Amino acid sequence: MFFGLTNSLATFQAFMNDILKEFIDEGWCVVYMDDILIFSDEINIHRLRTRHVLERLRENDLYLKPEKCEFEVTKTLFLGMVITPGHISMDETKLARIKDWEAPKTVKGVRSFLGFANFYRKFIGKYAELARPLHELTKKNTKFEWTKERDIAFNVLKAKFLQRPILQMPDDERPFIIEADASKWATGAVLKQQGSDGELHPCGYISHAFTPTERNYEIYDRELLAITNALKAWEHYLLGGAHPVTVLSDHKNLTYFRTAQKLNRRQARLSLYLTQFDLRLVHVPGTKMVQSDALSRRPDLVDEEENDNEDIVMLPDKLFVNVIDTELKTMLEEALPEDEFLQMTIESLIEKGTPPIKSTLQDWRTEGNLLFYKDRIYVPNDPTLRRLIWTKYKEIIGGRE
């Protein structure tokens, strides 16, 4: 890697991604610059995978320092996180600095502390609410005053970190639950999964500040934005999953979002994004969603963007259909004969009977060996196929090739 060039890091990362791409795609190899993590459930498989990676590195004239490597361990430090089977925690050496960290006396000191805290913020529930008094000190033209409120916030955050919180490792084979909420200032969300003990455990926390324009949105728009922000943050876990994603929200209007007949352009874009996920929207009173509600309390100032308040009729579904290529068509045709839902639907069309789901016969049609619902191609309920399709075509969905 050439040092001093502005694009050296990006070029090297692209190079590493390219030579190890098949291992990354198989889901057992993580690469960040010159840090490589290999993980497996069985020791024999793990050794085989390690050999594959080492051989690939040798083929590309890349070498490792043995003293910087760990092999066949059940606990490792990777990118500032301690990883153990099923869990992620913070680096103990970094936490050791927290206990004796004195209250900042300058804005630079506040930024230094928040820099550490923000790196590990996904471990701390109610982080946005707790850190808000400190964030206010970093705003432009704000006079530095270390008030009692800020001292309490500083010490409470220190105590939270010293409790050494642990996040559960996301498991693709288990359902995900998102608690999302929005205040006047920001959105907040918690990603959860059920553990082996039957209880729900957090996998991560996020919060995002609203722009001045977004603060003027109606409550259902802010709640919708909270959900889309959460989905974007964790889409690498949620897209193409084996189970529907349950979204808990404390605003009942969201239950009817998918049936809306008239959307403005911004809402239409969000609606199109949501169609990528298999969602279940559930109304939960805000009093039962303390974590995500607290995460949404962060009044950071952001440059105002152009407002979009004009309603337009939502574009017909048929305008969002992507042209299907030969390879995708073949993949679908091979999977469809085994799909019971397809056979039931075709029988209904032939006999002009009742469709297998709540819809009308006019919504369905066949074209060759493919089944269409409202001009959208039906994809069989095959998690492997859906994950493969998403991996292959995700760049085209965003308008990029």
TrEMBL record:
SUPFAM superfamilies: DNA/RNA polymerases (SSF56672). The keyword Ribosomal protein does not apply. Residues 1-83 form the Reverse transcriptase domain. Keywords: Endonuclease, Hydrolase, Nuclease, Nucleotidyltransferase, RNA-directed DNA polymerase, Transferase. InterPro entries: DNA/RNA_pol_sf, Retrovirus_Pol_polyprotein, Rev_trsase/Diguanyl_cyclase, RT_dom, RT_RNaseH. GO terms for molecular function: endonuclease activity; hydrolase activity; RNA-directed DNA polymerase activity. CDD domains: RNase_HI_RT_Ty3, RT_LTR. It holds the Pfam family RVT_1. Coiled coil: none annotated. It comes from the Eukaryota. This is Pro-pol protein. It comes from Moniliophthora roreri (strain MCA 2997).
